[in-house]
Amino acid sequence: MPLEASALPNVARVLIYSATRDFRHDSIPTAVDALVSHGPAANISFDHTEDQTWFTDDRLQQYDAILFLSNTGEVLDEAGKAAFQKYLDLGGNFVGIHSASDCLRNTTFFQKELGAAFDYHPELQDAIVDVIGPSHPSTSMLPMEWHVRDEMYNFKSDPRSVGAVVILSANESSYNDPGPRKFDQGTPHPTAWFQEHGAGVDSNGTAGRSFYTSLGHLNETWQDDLFMAHVMGGVQWALQANTTRAFNANGAVGNGTSTPSTTGATGTASASGSSSR
User: Fold this and answer.
1) Residue ranges in the chain assigned as alpha helix (H)
2) pTM, whole model, 2 decimals?
């Protein structure tokens, strides 16, 4: 017997933002396609844009999470930053992937919301990433010693200093990093982490969740089922903050309907926003 419309679960809406101003990863189109294709199974409708003018109060309030994907440089103007700050203050959730930690470098609320700023990485190579910390939906499917080929990021601060919980750690004995390392990023080496309450929110705001993984450099990585399970586990965890309309009827932002939106329903990145492919 089919469910009544009112009994159907709400479709969470997530905006992928992949604008770049400095280095640009050629894996971005592959990453967008991978995320969009994994959306329906997770009851998520992904939209995609590289247009900073999308960062307005009216547009952002439609989304249950904003996902920054491999961004670099100053990817938002002051108006966009203000709208994003307001979105976070209203309970919006945040996901950052790979070089999202290398954008908006002088924007304090963004750096806190993500957790730590990128410093440098040694050359791309095979490495082992250890699963540490509490059980988490983004790591529950991973081997305790995860063999990857990726960039092992170093950061300018310890994400634990803003309340983040580190759940993946680069095993520094498994790869070569000649440095120099100028900042204290804490130990174990942070590679992925979460914040139950995003630290970028104003003191009088309602904090949603924040999730960040520094992995995701190669096209091949985004075609790997295990990596996609890691990323989608993080996205789904962030959405379950219960602060947005997909899960909380009293939420101030997010999608409160049980059917996909007209801009994201097709499951194609071209259906929403601009892409520089």
Assistant:
1) 28-38, 57-60, 78-89, 108-114, 225-239
2) 0.92
